[in-house]
Fold this sequence. Notes:
The protein is an alpha+beta fold. Helices cover 35% and strands 41% of the residues. It contains two helices and four strands; from the N terminus they run βαββαβ. Strands 2-3-1-4 form a four-stranded antiparallel beta sheet, covered by helices on one side. Strand 2 (29-36) and strand 3 form a beta hairpin. The chain is globular.
Amino acid sequence: MPRTTLVFSLSSSQAQRDLLHEFSLHRDLDATGEVTAGLPTIQVVVGDVATRVWEVRATVGMFDDAATEVGGQA
C-alpha cells in the first residue's frame, strides 16, 4: 500500500511528546519527533488513504492548535 509522509511544526516539546504517545497507540502509522530549526517537529508516515491522512491532521490539531503542516510527500 502506498504511504504518505506528513511533517508538522509544533508549538512546544510537550505537544510533541503528547502526539508521539498518541500515535504510538496506532499500529498502522509511524511517528518520529525531532527538532528542526529550533522547533519541535513530528513526522508521521501513514497509509495513503484520504481518511487516514485527514485523521492524522485532525489529531495533530486537537493536541496543538498552533501546529503547522510544513511538509509532506506521497
